[in-house]
Structure formats: C-alpha cells, structure tokens
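pasting input
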Amino acid sequence: MTQMLRPAAEWELQSMIAKLVTNRQTAEVVGNGALRNAGRAVDADVVVTTASLRGLTLYEPTELVMSARSGTPLADIEAELGLRDQMLPFEPIDMGPTTGSPGGALSIGGVFATNASGARRITGGSARDHLLGLRAVNGRAELFKSGGRVMKNVTGLDVARGLTGSWGTLAIITEVTFKVVPQPAATGTLVYTGLPDDLAVEVLTTALGTPFEVSGAAHIPRRMAARLKLVALADAGTALTLLRLENFPAAVSERQAKLQAALKVYGTPMLLDTAASRALWRELRSLSILPYSADTSLWRISCAPTKGPEIVASIQKSMKADAFYDWSGGLVWLEVPTAADAGSADVRRAVAVRGGYATLVRASPQVRATVEVFEPMKPEIERLTRGMKTAFDPAGILNRGRMYATI
Amino acid sequence: MSRVAMPEPDAGPLQRRSIIVDDLARLVGRSALIWDEDGRRAYETDALTAYRSMPLLVALPRSTEDVSKILRYCYDNSLKVIPRGAGTSLCGGALPTEDAVVLCVSKMKRILDVDYANRTARVETGITNLAISGKVAEKGFFYAPDPSSQLACTLAGNLAMNSGGAHCLKYGVTTHNVLGLKMVLIDGTIVDIGGTCLDAPGYDLLSLAIGSEGQLGVITEATVRILRAAEGARPMMLGFDAPEVAGACVAAIIGAGIIPVAIEYMDRPAIAVCEAYASAGYPLDVEALLIVEVEGSDTEIASLLAKIADIAQPFAPKSIEISADADQSARIWAGRKAAFGAIGRISDYYCMDGTIPLGALPHVLTRISEICDGYGLKVANIFHAGDGNLHPLILYDANDPDSNEKAEAAGAEILKLCVEVGGCLTGEHGVGIEKRDLMSVQFSQTDLAVQMRLKSVFDPAWLLNAAKVFPLASSEPMRAAMRFEAPAAA
C-alpha cells in the first residue's frame, strides 16, 4: 500500500515535500480523492492528501469573500454560504460520481485545481474567474502566496489564476480565497421541447443575445433527457432545451415573458417555477444524467457554442454517441461506446477542424494511460508548459503524469 | 522614499542606433520606425509624466509577423524592448529607457471578426477600448471593462494591466472578458493562447499573460467577450455626513443581496471639483457621495432603486436623488469619469490605486487624511466602493521637487497602509515603476521568486520591460545574467 501523507499545517507540508526532494520520491496529490478516476492515473511513491487542511479561515458576507483551507469539503462551504443566503458564483460540478468515485468528496482545493465550473459559467464566470488568491507549496518546498482577499488586484503576475486547472502538477494549494455572491431570490426555467440539436443551440445563443441575463443555457437530446430524475421532464419523451433566469421574483416573471416573446418562433415553452427549476439545475450540476458506466467513455468538449452540434453530428457519423450540451452549446458532454482509444481519433479530428478542445473524462485506467486525456499541445505551448513545470517543480515530484505523460 | 531609480542604460545600443535602425528597416520597412529626436520625444513618457526617458527608437509594426521579426531581432541582439499601447499607463508601465526599443502596437487596430451568436470579437490590440464597444453597439452589445481612459487607452494596455473600470463590480475586469490571445514571445515565436471557447485545458497561460505588464510577450490579437447590454441603466446619488456611514451603507446594500452594476464613492473635495466641471447635480454639502447604478427594465430599475433607498434610510442619508433622465445619468457619469481630468485642472495630482477590504474603509480614510496632513498635502478621494478599489488623488506642485517628493512619500505610505489592512498595492493601474519598490511590502522574497521564474520561462534573457514590476535588487541576478549572455555586437 502506498504511503499516505496527511499534512495538517503548511509547514508540515513544506517539510514533507523537502524530504521527498531529498529522497528523490514522487507524490500523487489528492484532496479527498474525489477526482482520482479522472485525468491520467499517477504512479507515484507516496500520496499527499490535503484532507487534513480543513476549515474556513475567513468569511465576510458583506464583502462577498471567503477563504478556506484547500481540503475543506465543498459541501461544508456551500452549507456555510447557504446560512447567509449566498453561494459560489460558478456552480461547481463534481466529476466524482460520473468517473466512478463516491459523490460529495470534492474539496474546495480540487474545485480550483481543476477549474470545475458548472452551468452558471456562461454568464456568471468560472471558478478561475472568482479565485482571488491562494497559498500553496511548490515542488521546491517553498510556501508562497498570490493574489489576496480583495476583489481587484493587479499586483504582480496572476499566479493564483495561473494555477487553476493545473491539477496539482505545479503546486499543492493549501488555502484559497474566492468571491461569493448572493443567492437569487427566484429562479425560472423556460423549457423548449422537441428541438434538434442545431436549432436548440440557435435558441440558446439567441437567448444569450438578449438583455435578460440568462444564467443557464443547456440542451438535453431525447435519449439523455429520459434519464432525468425529474419525472415530469423525463416522461416528456423529447429533447429539452433549457433557459434559466435568476433574479428578484418580479424580475424573473417579467424577463420570462419577454424572453418567451423574443423566442416565439421556436414555439411555446413549458415554464418551471423556482422549486422545479432549482431541482432541475441541481440535477444537471450533479451530472447524474451521465452516470458511471464501464460500457461507455465520456468526453468533455469545449468549443464555440455554434460549433457544438456540428462536432457532435460529425462524431456520430462514426460511432453511437450521446451528447448533453451546456454553456449554450459551448460545452458538450459526449458519451461514446467503450473502445481501445475511446474514439479519440474521431473525436479529436471533429474538434480540431472546428476549433476547440476535447478532454477524456471517463475511460478505463488502461485507456487513459495510452490515449491523451487532455488536448495534445502545440509545440510552442508545450515549451511554455514544460518551462512552468520546471519553474514550480524542477524535480518533477508533484502529480507527474496527471495531465501529460512526462509533465 | 526617494525617486524611483532605473538601471544605467547600456552604452552599446546607443552607439549602434543607426545600424539598428538600418537592420530593422530591412525587416519591417523604414516607415514603421521613428528614430529622430522629435519623433522619439512623443514616446518619452506615459501618464506617469513625472518620469521621462528618450527611447533608443520606436517601432510601429502593422502586423503580428512584423512584431515577430522585430522581437526576434531584439532577442538576437540583446536589445531591451518596451511594449506600448496608447501610453496612458498611470504607473510608468510604458516608460522607455534610453537603451530600449519601444514597440508600439497602436497601428494594429483592426477589428478582425465579430461573432454575435458566440458573443465574441477578435481584434488587434492597438484598438482603443471604446472602439470595441463602438463597433458592436449597433446590435446592442458592448465590451464590458470600462477604464476611465477608455477613449484613448488600447486593448493592449488593458490586457497588460488587467484593467477594470467603474462597472466591473458586475461585469468583471479584463481577465474575465477575454477568451483568447495571440502573443509574440521575445524570440519571435507566435503563440495562440486560449481560443473562442469558455475554457481551455492545460495550464492557464491566459491568466498569466493578462496583467503581466509586458513582462512575458507582446499581445497582438485578442478574442474578447462581447455582452448584450441591459435594457436600461440608471444611477442614484446618496449623500452622507461621514465617510464611514457611506461605507456601512455599501456593506448593507451588498449584504441585502443586491449587486449594483457600480457603486462609486467621492469625498467632499472630489465632489466639489467634479461638480464644477460636469454640473451633474452632485450634492455639495455632504462629506461622502455614493453613485449607485442598477440595470434592467424600467420597472426593475424603479424597484431596485426603491429597495436601495430603503436600505439606505437607517444610515440617514443627507440627500437621495435618483437620476431624472438619460441626460442627467450621462452627466453623473461624465463627472465621475472626468474626475482625474477635473482635478488636474486645479492642481497636479498623484493618483493612488490601492484596494482594501471594505470594512477597513473608515480607518483607511482617516489615516489617508492624517498621512497627507503630515506632509502638508491635500487629498481628494475617489473610490470604486463596491470592490474596495481606492483612488486617493494627492494634490501637489509638480514644479516643486520638494512637493513632488512629499507626494510620492505620502503615496507610498498610503499603499503600505492598504497592504497592512489586508488589501493590495494596485487594483487596476498596475505596478510599473511606480510601485515596483513597494512590491516587497506585499510579497515575500519567495512570492516574488515564484513570479520572476515565470517571467524567465517566457523571457529568459529579461529583455521585455525589464527593471519594472519587480524590485531591482530582486531581479538583479536575472538582469545581470542577461548582460552576461549578450552576444557581441555585429
């Protein structure tokens, strides 16, 4: 069994890393292990977990700012925010369950290390956008900080945001400070039914071109929609195109009516009230319509919204693939049959031609070890990426191979 | 604190100026170069006019390929480069040195593509901030970051400084509104970072490039997000007897779950000057004025402003006035946005840019008054209150070296104070040379080393905007290594 290191303080983590450097040992970096089945598997000498770096260190509701140690469970953070009718602005998703890990284990450090943003990203911004500062220990055993606790800060290079999405390969985050926002008083959802993917994306992008501040824009084709737990929608037996509005109650009803008028050529939508809307978007956020299965692999494709349906149609020519569109078409979750390369060649070709990136989220460890999980890098980007790795972790101790085989 | 020092210029490039001009002319054409003294003088400073230095020469390329050729030449010949947009930097970000080539992107200002369905615009970075919004306004769209200098400043400068503006409380700053960049590295390599998608995998190079103050590369193109404008917007003005009461009112508004599109604060001296300039109807008998703007339909605006007025009541505002019409709204904003210029009409001023936690506002304002009193200087305070970004304007006499030095010393004390209370040195103007030597107040040597190593990844020879952002003592080893590696002159 691999040795598990559980630092409970920053200095302890520093001394652990220093020792690894001396002993030329490598480390897998985890929070509570929620994302261990996502990305590439790491074959390291020890595991370092941030699980004991836990707890809030700052919460100023009237300044919309919170700080927490990185191992703090996301659930604890959201519970604390809920007590003050606030929330994380970016509706983080948990890729744990869809990759075969238990749900609810995601840590706040993991959220920022993977930039795990949900539906609200389309207008509300991403996890990365709301990170204000962090503290971390790099592969040189140095403790450093970047950013701070204030909303506007351009002092020096934006190293904090630069570490988001680096999957623990550059530094181990020990504490994050981020912006929070008030929960909207009311939510409403317009549900258009029976639209083909391309028309659905037209509805979504048209809606985002209106002044009504759509905060969620998703499309669930028929087969995928049947998996919803919300019976009323699952039983509709049709594709669902969803537009969410959030605001004060009067504003939601006013905007709902105006948005419906602006989109009247696309038919008459079902309207979901606050309770039904919240249940629906909570379900989408949990990715429960993409349940773990050994029979399928899961891709996450990021592209210009109008390219989403084209990319999916192109891939569907060569394999049976089921899509779920978020971010008005700019984020496609694509389920494909299990195969030796998880359909990589076809998926990457379809994406490359139209512009975008594909990430292999779910596949067997063997497949994830042989197929590039993250989009392959162009040479000049790879040069900078390797340079950054060396700047932070010259000995290649931290999560080596988690994103790219030799980085 | 003494004046900010710059390293001695290297003599080599100065002696070789005409050879360098000829070489570059062969690469990009003579019309893209300025080397005569009068021409160069236009580039000797930026909006931090207390510092001046004539550049070696100025290059005004018209394409990314030309930028690449110029940078490659500078790299091969160990020439320092100062990237420049419109030269509106308030922190000396575009201040030349005598041994450096100023590379100015102001001739690259085309709009390459506007994609309304995907809500993006691809532009060359020499375009002015306001020109982007101007282009997409016909369809009701806009580019969100709105620095006060938006009529003049370029997107290139906004990207370099991660600029904000009055409306970033709701819409975020530059880094929140950019999806992709084309950046040229010092060795001429052209790198595409990000793209047209909302997120890109791999290390977040976009975050590092934006706000890097010309330290990492020269950004020539950007794909920015364009947003559909709200149905309408309307400001209200709330006047208070005391600064701390205004601060508490801001906290109460946000605490009630309302995030206005902007909350701006002006103190009595600032109000008086701006009112004289813009006739916006600002109340003149209050110590602190809040301009709170909300957006939406007419009914939404009316209901939100009424709610804010209710929230403000317990703080006994001395005046509450909702803007009567579009004309008054325009004047209210004109006054605020012209604040720096208006104050500039009555005195030279030194503009600070620290950010503080809102809760520290009363303490910080009291201390700012004490600090400036201590130096015998007057101060006017303008403040993006919603996000804690302070702009104390220290009034001084630029023709009096003593007054100049006092203003800088008072400014440094104010910025140290901002860091002390949990804030930072600069919220939107950048570090440049102005706050360079204060960086060690906010950052440890390790924090700075982490940043400087990243610069070295992009600019291993430290040729780009060197001697800025990082304290000279901290960056000395890297800059010295650069000189050591410099090849002999051709």
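fyi Chain A has a mean pLDDT of 96.
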